[in-house]
Amino acid sequence: MKKMKISHYLWILVFLPIFILSGMFYLGQSSLASVGNFMDKLYRHPYAVSSSIKDIKGGILELQCLNLEDDQSLLNSRKVENIDRNIEKSIEVLKTSYLGEREHVLKLESKYKMWIDTLFERKSSSTDADKKNLHYNDLLANVESINMYADSKGKDFYLKASAYRNQATSIFIYTVIGSIIILIFASSLISKRLNSEVFAIMLKLKRGGEVVLNESNEITKSSKTLSDGTNDSASALQESASSMEELSAMVKNNVLQAQKSKDLSQEMEESAKLVCEKTTELIGSMDRISESNQDIASLVFAIEEIAEKTKIIDDIVFQTKILSFNASVEAERAGEFGRGFSVVAQEVSNLAKMSGRASTEIAVIVKNSVKNAQVIYESNKSRVENGTFLVNDTASFIKKIEDDSKNIRQNVEQILSASQDQAAGISQMNEAISQLDQTTQLNASMATQSSNASFELNQQALNLQSIVKELEFLVKGQSRDQDGETKNDQVSGGKVLLLQNRKNEKSEDKRNEEIKKIANGANSWDKI
Amino acid sequence: MKKYFVFIMGEKRFAVPMLEVEEVVLPIEISVIPEQEKCLKGVVNLRGEIVTVVDIKIKLGLGETSIIDRKTCFVIFNLEGHKVAVMVDEVEDVVQMEETEIKDVRDLRKTKFVEGIYRTKNDQLILIANTRKLLEIDLLEKIRNAA
Known about the structure:
The structure holds 2 protein chains of 2 kinds. Chain A is mainly α. Helix content of chain A is 89%, strand content 0%.
């Protein structure tokens, strides 16, 4: 009987007793039928007889009582009719149910009728009364004999029924014993078969459970690794995000600085322009200074004209001197007569000298003035030249500054736009990193979930192991096992399944070591 | 008390007696006559009169006559009938000198024509010149006589 379904076994277990029972039933059925038959007969006949007899008896007695009361009205009442009717009914019943000879019943009937007739006769005499009594007693005796017969029949039936009952009982007992034995035998066979099947399945479950445990440990390990890795990447992302923020802040700062620089350079440009304008104004004023210098020159020229005129005066003075000399000479020549003239000449000479002195002074003043004016002019001129030179230098420098600041401004504008692009790019990168961060956090949470799930799986695998162990106990019992496993295998909820000295294959040991490690690692999950 | 005519030559003051000076004129164009004698410069046309020009600078050791200055004048001397024009740097003054105040230096210095030295009130030194020697009258006489 290989590979039969459990349901088949169960059918067998069920139908076997059913068969037995039905056989038993069948066997007993007949006895019971007989018993029932007898019972029926008992009911139909002896019982029915008894009850009819009882009714008859009761009715007769009642009539007798009525009769004895000797009340004529009563005798004609409906009650008597009823009783009579009842008695007659009972007699009919008796007829059908009496098992003895029918004649007895007929006899009874006739006797009754006789009595009843006598009862209703109005003639009341003592002989009639004795007759009535005789009839009555005879009737009663008949009734009794019928009753007794019925009783004995009933007993007879009872005995027969008992015999049949006993028969049925013995049949039952034998059948039960037999079926018990058969059942024990069959059930042991079946249970053995089931056991072996269950054992095989349990072994498979056990192996499978171990595999699941291993795999769940592996999953635990890898999800821990994943979780660690994800945490690492999350922290790295955090760092990236923070450095991105720093970078973003720096770039924002750059943008700000570039903006400031741009503004500054614009200001500088404008200032340079202003300076240029001012320089132009300065040049203009210097030109005006030059012009005024020219005026000074013309002043000098005027002074020189004065000097010229003074020269003329000098000439005049000189000639006057000469004249006075000549006059003196002539006066000297004239001798006595020239004395007055000599005085005049002397005075003229004096005048000439005075004029000469004045003229000389004027000349000196003029010379000094001219010299000063010249000096001023020259210094002005040189200053103006210097100034112009400086201003031109400055102007050229300013122009250069202006150009440079323009360049700077352009460069700064470029920097600004580049920085703004940078900022945009960085904000995009920020977004990307935050997305990445979210994803990584999601990953981390999922890794945590998966590690939790794997822990649960681990737990469930351990549970499975323990259940399988229970099943094993169920199948094998708790002491020794067929596979030579030691007693020390302990499984309790949450503790690690220590697989020791299973089979002495190295791979098994290695696997055990691994599992131990993983289990120990899994233990640390308790702290999480 | 004699009146002397003071003129400046080469920044030295010279004085000559007034009587020897006839006229002082402004510079006139010299018509150069090549002469063997270097001191005879040429002649000038003084109001139609031809007057010999003598360069006394050589005599004074002052080199040739320099460029005519604004104050340059011709002093016309008339000595012993000789009219000589002398170019002087400047005509200064007429000074009255006492004979006693003039220091005689003829023997002190072996100059050809300085006769004396006069100290003015302003502590200026005026060299009294011997006109005759100064003006080379001898030479002129020789020339006249030769001609």
